[in-house]
Amino acid sequence: MTDITEEEIESTFQRLTADAKRSGYNLNPDEEFTKELVESLLINGKRYGYWACPCRLADEVKEEDLDLICPCDYRDVDVEEFGACYCALYVDKEIASGEKEAKPIPDRRPEREERAQFKASSGKGVVQTELAYPVWRCRVCGYLCAREEPPGICPVCKAGKERFDRFM
Amino acid sequence: MEYEHVDGKDKGKIVLYALSTCVWCRRTKKLLGELGVAYDFVFIDQKSSEEKELYKDEIRKHNPRCSYPTLVLNDERCIVGYQDEEIREALS
């Protein structure tokens, strides 16, 4: 079913490696493992139109899947707590340096109903109307910026504009 | 619902619910192959939307979070995730 070429996998792998390094993240050092994940992301990109997490079942409705578009909303907390994200594409320093091995971890993604509740409550926090600009927060990495609109792509983690919430 | 069958030693009814893109699911499949057991598996992501719901209902009976891989042994025991040691211990 996959018509992803070796070249596509290699160039995407190189780009992700460079992006991760530049923004202080690490890809899994097991290159074979990581390239399998890259291929899976490319497959999901082709069949869904976005990089849904390869290890979770996508809804195939982008609006419902926003939180699991790679890098997912849960990556940073999982890397912090378990040393790796759910699919183990992103890992912490210890795993990146080979001191530890990535292991499967539990999925922290809330069930659909809980996600809907969270979505309804987010962005309705303290909104300071006297600010010169609204402050936007990236749900993936927490990057904050004060400007009229969130950036098209998060400069830190490359998440898309639709993954920003109004923070202040 | 249709499952693909892999031949091997009879260790009871073994069903693996997996995603074709998930590397942990692939490792689980590889381990089952290495252990040489007979099992049925299904790649949920390759099914139609209606079928997906049927499989998910089935998975939820054993694993309410409905995550992958879910391995069900004899309709009783459920192993969630690629748990190398636990799977070896259960099937060898």
List the helices and strands and how they pair.
The complex is a heterodimer of chains A (168) and B (92).
Chain A: H1 6-22, E1 26-27, H2 31-48, H3 62-65, H4 75-82, E2 90-91, H5 93-96, H6 112-121, E3 135-138, E4 144-146, E5 164-166
Antiparallel strand pairs in A: 1-2, 3-4, 3-5
Chain B: E1 4-6, E2 14-18, H1 23-35, E3 39-43, H2 49-60, E4 70-73, E5 77-80, H3 84-91
Low-confidence runs of chain B? none
Sequence of secondary-structure elements of chain A? HEHHHEHHEEE
CATH homology group of the largest domain in chain A: Ferredoxin thioredoxin reductase catalytic beta subunit
Q: Radius of gyration of chain A, Cα only, in angstroms?
A: 17 Å
CATH C-level of chain B: Alpha Beta
Main sheet summary of chain A:
3 strands, antiparallel
Distance between the termini of chain B: 28 Å
Largest sheet of chain B: 5 strands, mixed
Q: Would you identify the regions of chain A where 5 or more consecutive residues have pLDDT less than 50?
A: none
Count every beta strand of chain B, where a strand is a DSSP E run of 2 or more residues: 5
Any idea of the CATH topology of the largest domain in chain A? Ferredoxin Thioredoxin Reductase
Count of alpha and pi helical runs of chain B: 3
Q: How many helices of chain A does DSSP assign?
A: 6
Describe the global form of chain A. Answer: globular
Secondary structure class of chain B reads alpha+beta
Into which percentage range does the β-strand content of chain A fall?
5-15%
CATH topology (fold) name of chain B: Glutaredoxin
Helix content of chain B: 25-40%
